[in-house]
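quick q for whoever's on today - can somebody do inverse folding on this one?? i tried earlier but teh output was garbage lol. tokens:
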């Protein structure tokens, strides 16, 4: 990940949380439609698969964002330590 990608990806977590909430709402409405017999079984199953696939994708994006954040934080800590210790080179 380069320095231009990080700010763009940071905002992605909020979008993924919204996406997950929207998918949970869709799942609930789909189940209600199924219970009311207002949706054919084959369409119900297709939508279940789509919603589950999108939930997995959104959760994966969140996990990757968390991992990226941890990596950036580790690099910043290491850079800070290096910056603090480089003064000793000139003593």
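ok took a stab at it. sequence:
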């Amino acid at each position: 990940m380069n320095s231009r990608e990080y700010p763009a990806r940071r905002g992605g977590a909020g979008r993924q949380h919204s996406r997950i909430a929207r998918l949970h709402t869709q799942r609930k409405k789909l189940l209600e439609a199924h219970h009311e017999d207002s949706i054919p079984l084959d369409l119900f199953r297709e939508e279940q698969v789509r919603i589950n696939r999108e939930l997995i994708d959104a959760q994966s994006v969140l996990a990757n964002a968390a991992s990226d954040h941890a990596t950036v934080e580790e690099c910043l800590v290491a850079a800070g330590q290096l910056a603090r210790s480089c003064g000793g080179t000139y003593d």
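fwiw The chain has three helices and no strands. also The radius of gyration is 22 Å. so keep that in mind when u check it
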